[in-house]
Automatic annotation (TrEMBL):
Site keyed Cleavage: positions: G186, T187
Positions annotated as active site in the UniProt record: T187
InterPro entries registered for this protein in UniProt: ASRGL1_meta, Ntn_hydrolases_N, Peptidase_T2
Keyword flag Nucleotide-binding: no
One Pfam family in the UniProt entry: Asparaginase_2
Protein name from the UniProt record: Isoaspartyl peptidase/L-asparaginase
Source organism phylogeny: Eukaryota, Metazoa, Chordata, Craniata, Vertebrata
Family, per entry: Belongs to the Ntn-hydrolase family.
GO BP annotation list: L-asparagine catabolic process via L-aspartate; proteolysis
PANTHER family: ISOASPARTYL PEPTIDASE_L-ASPARAGINASE, L-ASPARAGINASE
Matching Gene3D superfamilies: (Glycosyl)asparaginase
Organism: Eleginops maclovinus
Length: 330
């Protein structure tokens, strides 16, 4: 009996079990509360993004390729506060932030306050891959984009009717843009583990509604908007940036995993700490090296989706968890 138990626990068997859980990708479409007429769009968008990331992983692509693809799909979807659809700053302009991190090397790339770029997440990856720096901002980041041949798009092409309407509404003297934003959600992010066990994260945002020009939030800040380490896992965050930065939420959750917490418990502990310590609400998607994952939030809602072992998982409200075969077309 003992022998049987021991043979069950051999490293080969354990590795085979871990392999069964890989690859995996988990995405989010922002923490907050989504208006009823936008719930379907928001859920459909994260499901498409998780499928896109999973297709890359199943074709032998890396976790970095998968998270960048998933986030690009969400940036291209006007329903989210990233890329086209980004919220506007006080001057009515789009300024975007993004980060990627590679859990194998702990290399990262980030951009902040970039304009006229359709996919800031791809620019963040270029910063990681093609420069000796990890973070470029504003005009310097835009200049680098030009030097890399990244096409510039017109500022208007990133602005939707919906974001302009919210900007105007929040110019009113009695408006509360932070509350209004947590009432609408939209930052996007992804985490993934590929079949080789390499882990990556990516997060992209237009930031906070009616923010000051030049304001940079948590998203492009390593350890706040995201963190990835092959030894412990990866996290992508969403919520009020100034609050997330106070607790370096992504790294805090990985610290709890490092201390032996499950990926779900660690995510809940990080969010609970942010709530009790600095009254902040938010959401995260997290994975560990074994491919266990969580999509957790303290806000009212967060659209999320995960793809693993030919199954698509998704949800929006707390406690919601639907599944569908990935073979079933959208
Ligand atoms: N964290 C983002 C920021 O503060 C906003 C969000 O996640 O909704 O820029």
């Amino acid at each position: 009996m003992i022998l049987l138990f021991l043979s069950f626990r051999t490293p080969q068997r354990y590795f085979a079990q871990v392999k069964d859980m890989l690859p995996v990708v988990v995405v989010h479409g922002g923490a907050g509360q989504i208006p009823k007429d936008r719930t379907e769009m928001s859920t459909a968008g994260v499901c498409s993004a998780a499928r896109a990331g999973y297709t890359i992983l199943c074709g032998g692509g890396s976790s970095m390729d998968a998270v960048v693809e998933a986030v690009s799909v969400l940036e291209n979807n006007p329903c989210y506060n990233a890329g086209c659809g980004s919220v506007l700053n006080i001057k009515g302009e789009v300024e975007m932030d993004a980060i990627v991190m590679d859990g194998k090397t702990l290399g990262s790339g980030a951009v902040s306050a970039v304009r006229n770029i359709a996919n800031p997440i791809q620019l963040a990856r270029l910063v990681m891959d093609k420069t000796s720096h990890s973070f470029l901002t504003a005009e310097g980041a835009n200049q680098f984009a030009r030097s890399m041949g990244v096409p510039e798009v017109s500022p208007e092409s990133l602005i939707t009717e919906y974001s302009r309407m919210r900007w105007v509404k929040n110019l009113a003297p009695d408006a509360n843009p932070v509350e209004s934003q947590m009432g609408k959600m939209g930052t996007v992010g992804a985490v993934a583990v590929d079949s080789e066990g390499n882990i990556a994260c990516a997060t992209s945002t237009g930031g906070m509604l009616n923010k000051m020009e030049g304001r940079v939030g948590d998203t492009p800040c390593i350890g706040s908007g995201g963190y990835a380490d092959n030894l412990f896992g990866a996290v992508s965050t969403t919520g009020h940036g100034e609050t997330i930065m106070k607790v370096t939420l992504a790294r805090l959750i990985l610290f709890y995993i490092e201390q032996g917490q499950s990926v779900e418990a660690a995510s809940d502990l990080g969010l609970a700490y942010m709530k009790s310590r600095v009254s902040g609400l938010g959401g995260v998607v997290s994975v560990d090296p074994q491919g266990r994952w969580a999509a957790r939030f303290s806000s009212q809602q967060m659209s999320w989706a995960a793809a693993q072992t030919e199954t698509l998982h998704y949800g929006l409200y707390a406690g919601e968890h639907f599944t569908q075969s990935l073979e079933k077309p959208l």
